[in-house]
Amino acid sequence: MQVRESIDENADDFFAALSDWLTIPSISGDPACSAEVRRSAEWLVAQLRATGFPIAEVWETAEGQGLPAVYAEWPADDPAAPIALVYGHHDVQPVEPLEEWDSQPFEPVQRDGLLFGRGASDDKGQVFFHLLGVRANLAASGRQAPPVTIKILVEGEEESGSTHFADLLRSQRERLNCDVVVVTDTSMWAADVPSMCVGMRGIIDAQIDLRGPTRDLHSGSFGGAVPNPLHVMADLLAGLHDTDGRVTIPAFYQKVLPISDVERELIARLPFDEKAWLAEAGNSGATVGEAGYGTLERIWARPTAEVNGMWGGYTGPGGKTIIPAQAHAKLSFRLVARQEPAEIIDGLRQYVREHVPAGLEARVTSEGNGVRPCFSAPESPAVQAGRRAMERAFGREVLFTREGGSGPEADLAEILDAPLVFIAVGLDADRVHAPNERVDMDLLLKGAEAAAYLWDEFAAAAGSLTSGR
Amino acid sequence: MQVRESIDENADDFFAALSDWLTIPSISGDPACSAEVRRSAEWLVAQLRATGFPIAEVWETAEGQGLPAVYAEWPADDPAAPIALVYGHHDVQPVEPLEEWDSQPFEPVQRDGLLFGRGASDDKGQVFFHLLGVRANLAASGRQAPPVTIKILVEGEEESGSTHFADLLRSQRERLNCDVVVVTDTSMWAADVPSMCVGMRGIIDAQIDLRGPTRDLHSGSFGGAVPNPLHVMADLLAGLHDTDGRVTIPAFYQKVLPISDVERELIARLPFDEKAWLAEAGNSGATVGEAGYGTLERIWARPTAEVNGMWGGYTGPGGKTIIPAQAHAKLSFRLVARQEPAEIIDGLRQYVREHVPAGLEARVTSEGNGVRPCFSAPESPAVQAGRRAMERAFGREVLFTREGGSGPEADLAEILDAPLVFIAVGLDADRVHAPNERVDMDLLLKGAEAAAYLWDEFAAAAGSLTSGR
Hints:
The structure is a homodimer.
Chain A: H1 3-22, H2 34-51, E1 55-59, E2 69-74, E3 83-89, E4 109-111, E5 114-116, H3 124-141, E6 149-155, H4 165-171, E7 180-183, E8 195-200, E9 202-211, E10 217-218, H5 219-222, H6 229-238, H7 261-268, H8 274-280, H9 295-300, E11 304-313, E12 322-323, E13 326-335, H10 341-355, E14 361-365, E15 374-375, H11 381-394, E16 399-403, H12 409-416, E17 420-422, E18 438-440, H13 441-460, H14 462-465
Parallel strand pairs in A: 3-6, 3-7, 7-17, 8-16
Antiparallel strand pairs in A: 1-2, 2-6, 4-5, 5-18, 8-15, 9-13, 9-14, 10-12, 11-13
């Protein structure tokens, strides 16, 4: 039996079971739904066992204070075979505004080849295709075990900030040991343009607080002769970029991995409609940004400094003629491989120190440690194996994308010390996080097919995947 | 009898009467005190009549909807004599915080040569010295009428924005006709450094609103490739000044009257303690501002652009990774003679238009028409006459100052088309607008003395004062 044959044979059961899972409102951000998140985990464990995983467990987080993850493992017969860890999540986003849903978010319905329901795409549907995939792999090979050891880790807190995820990875570091991490929680360029993500930008936030006079000063008495914190803040923020749109913070670009010619060439081949993209941003003008890079390169592969908020002085109706005592700004930096969040904040501190005049006090703070960027080179063995699996499933060339935003993926790569391969079939059109979330049912089956081929491709590339052991 | 002799003889009665006036809580900003403002006006009319003014009237404003002013007139015998109009106000500031007063604000007490009470300096005490002054002038000359026609206009809404003052000036333009306006509502440099104000900066406010995307954008998806309104606002505000601290708005300095060498020299002779002044602003650093000017020149005689407030994007706790849809800033410009508020706003509009990139919408608005600056050259005949009067009263050289802030004085100069002469003896130490307002009783008597001499000096300078008729 061929992989595709097995998948088609089991497709009805697959969607019936997935629809059952989608009835569980596992909203991790809503404390009232904690029991449902737990029910969702238990449901998945049962399915993994039924699929044949010899190990399938609910994993508590924060000693039972957090929301549970699911772990499963199916060892290859060959103990030297590569170990692949699949990552996804079983919790979902809240559903408000409910009145904008055409059907109930937790009563899944099929229509025109689409399955509607909260979690259909993000991420239950995509996690679930792995169960169909491994079954198809075994059906096609006629063996009792997969050609590589498959571990599956399905988080229950991704939509509420992955609060305990890094701790879980560290405490279970031994059992999660692997040669490659398969991330199934992203999207493709389009249904007819299959693609794989190869990187996500990291992020670190910062706040700049400037304090000048001890109180607001009368601008008639002092205006024009003492530093105005708002002017200094404007200078600081305006000076963050040079005329080429490059960030001026010391050493900001020092560790940035340049985009390879291969990747640039592949990005350039994506059918990108810049005008439509700009319109989506409500902008009828032109794109801006770092000189020498295209829009997709700028939002995927180049770091940025963005001011997210600023405030100071009088902001009510009418006017107030003051030199305000304080000025504040919130910033965030999108980072690319190999920038280190802490080093960026050090650079910002130096920049502020060098630019704030005497008589003003400046403070730069940052909450948390930020998120490191992650990146897997398109030409790396793991990504190439994934690409072959995707190309076999889709029957056409697979291109590469990155994502501008950030998730727990960098923790996976870093704590488990393994390359990431993004295998996912979601679409921008899936309306994840929004009303009427849906998934393209044909694409889910393609995902299962790609997942089935993936284990063979990893087995075939065993030498290069396990060389780092 | 000499002027000073007459003043000393009447001093006790003067302070007794003033103390009586100070018991009336004529707080124009408090609607509950409207009747008290009216009672204060009526009280003053009675005092003016008792002093000998043949005309003394309550003048309604806004057809009785506003708070009343007081008008009085004492014609010179010679119909060709100069006409001087004295300006002051009889309303006072609110008294909160009441617990910080050492005595009740409307129960005046004398202590150590100081008279404490709301309005003691600003402006009842100073208005009232004119009545003592004109009496001393007549006592010294032995005549029945002053040597110049004296008109007195005492406003009842100065502390609440002079809402109806310009209208009053326009509607009473004929009766207020004069050759010189004597403003008695400012302060001197110090008790031992008598001085006269010769100018006040004008002001115009503005708001800049920038609108970019139709909604806040996810900075992961769009950051680095579309214009961020906060960045553009920072650029706009940072670019308002060049590296010499000069305002970059087109034609901003075009009409500015340069400071004369005479005035610069006189300003330089004021005993200015810059360190103490900076400390008052809560600043331990250094002064800043337009290159080529000292601190007093910068705050008195040079125009400025100040950002009074700015806001946009996320300003709550933590961070939010957005490119915000909007950014806003409130500005005010302090203006010096002969800048025109409306032209400054035109210049700002041009500046914003030239600096905002495509895809962002910018709006510049300004409330009201602003306040024109006012200025009387130190070497002008009216100021020189006033200076001689002050020097006779104080027995020493009188220096010149300006004020950085703005009041209804520009309306007086402009609508009545007459030069301003500032005769006042208030001090910064008087705590006007604050708890424990007080006045130096000796200085009030010096003020009366200067006012008495002033009418003779004006009479002596009649030719140059009335040449413009």
